Structure formats: C-alpha cells, structure tokens
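In response to reviewer comment 3 from the previous cycle, which asked for concrete evidence that the modeling workflow produces usable outputs, we include below a single protein chain processed end to end. The sequence was submitted unchanged, and the resulting structure tokens are shown without manual editing.
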Amino acid sequence: MKRLDELTSPVEIGKYYLVPTVRAEWSCMVRDWPVIGPKHNDRHCLGFDHDHYHIDPRFVPEFSCYGQFWRLVGGSPIMSRGGLNPHGLPTPVWRRRMCKRLANPELGVFYELASRSPQWHCHFREWTGRRARRSGQGWMCPHRNVSLVDQAPVDGVITCPLHLLRIDAATGVVLPPPVIHEVVE
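The workflow returned the following structure tokens.
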C-alpha cells in the first residue's frame, strides 16, 4: 500500500492509502483525522496566527454531527480538544485510509465566501501568476510546497487542497480564483 507522498498519479475512490493523520478534536469527535500538508500558520494575508493542520476531505467519512462539514473542511484548521492546544499539535502518523471522494465537492461555496474577504483577496493576488515547482513526481504548490501529484485535475486545473490555489495542470501557472467580487479594503 502506497503512502500519499509516494504516489505518481491521483488517488482513486475506493482504494486504500497510507495517509498522514493527527489525533485531535474536530467537529465534535476526537480521532485520528487525515490531514493535508504541513502544520503551519497563516499569519501572512490570512491573519490566522495559530499553528494548525487542514483536514483531507478525501479520506473522511460523512457524519451527521459535522453540521457545516464541507465548509469547515474547505478552510478551517484542525485543533485539539478545547480549542487551541497550548502544547501544540502532534506530528502526523501514517495510517491506512480509504479514499471516499476525489476532492472537496463544495469548493465553489468556499470560493464564494473567500471572494468576500480582503484577506483571501491578498492571498490570491500574491500567488496568481506565479509558477509551481515541478518535482520528479509532479507539481508542487508554490505557497506551502504541497505535492499536488495525488490531486486529480478538473478541466485542466489542479486545486491545491490546502489554501485553494488553482494551478494549470499543463503549465504550472497559478490561476486566479473562479469567482472574485470587489471588496472594499
């Protein structure tokens, strides 16, 4: 069974992979949650100072207590019990998980919310037009250097699951978000 960081092509629904997981509370449950990318903060542009991980929605089953499950997965960090953990979050542990879906199906909802936020405008402006780096396996998102090889392109575009940058699958150029409304900053 392959680890996500060893893949040379996108994940497939119904297949098992070794996925980085972090034991923490998210959406009313403590468990080993699949996470994307490195532990990080989003001080620059997004104004979120706390170290966090993002949930990988491809490997999370649906539960009724999630409430706004997809919106939270799309942009909210995972933190430990009681909010922010003063001792920090643990290092991810690789665990066997089945791929349930190829991407977050509510990306359009998240882009619409982000389009009304000056912080997200700053983020998208900073990265649009830059070129992703190509590793031996595939494109790497220029923002947090996250491998995109396991992400399936849709209409020739790979969306970085960490902070939603859209990368042209052929050229590696970061594209503007699909919807941006003018925001008074």
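The chain has three helices and ten strands. We consider this sufficient to address the reviewer's concern, and the full set will be provided in the supplementary archive.
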